[in-house]
Design a protein that fits this description.
By secondary structure, the chain is of the alpha+beta class. It has one domain: Hypothetical protein (Archaeosine Trna-guanine Transglycosylase, Chain: A, domain 4). Helices cover 34% and strands 32% of the residues. It has six helices and five strands; from the N terminus they run E-H-E-H-E-E-H-H-H-H-E. Strands 1-3-4-5-2 form a five-stranded mixed β-sheet. It comes from Kitasatospora xanthocidica.
């Protein structure tokens, strides 16, 4: 039986970047529910009444945001031209230190029809 689609709420600026194909990595902390996301799964991101359907192409776990930013393409995570410091600040504004301690997931995405 194929996996059901999973709906994930997201901030509108990030949804717009995913829909444009610019943001191909969604960053989440390691909640048990997020750890169940796997390659081949369909994720539907939503903000208000706007939706964007994606396919998970990979999930990489890191101990923290610094380690993730050492490896992943910054432009695939955030807006074009954001510095590492700006990305780190943005990640930590969304996810406080106690959440970062759960581990960091870089969810690689591809748009689907």
């Amino acid at each position: 039986m194929p996996d059901q689609e999973r709906v994930i709420r997201i901030r509108r600026p990030s949804l717009d970047l995913i829909a444009a194909g610019t943001k191909t990595i969604e960053v989440r902390v390691g909640y048990p529910s997020m750890r169940r996301i796997h390659p081949g799964q369909t994720l539907v991101f939503e903000s208000g009444d706007t939706h964007c359907r994606t396919l998970v192409t990979g999930v990489t776990e890191y101990p923290d945001f610094d380690a993730m930013l050492d490896t992943e393409d910054p432009e695939a995570i955030g807006s074009e031209g954001m510095s590492r410091t700006e990305l780190l600040t943005a990640c930590r504004e969304i996810h406080p230190p106690e959440k970062e301690q759960l581990g960091v997931l870089a969810i690689h995405l591809r748009l689907t029809p």
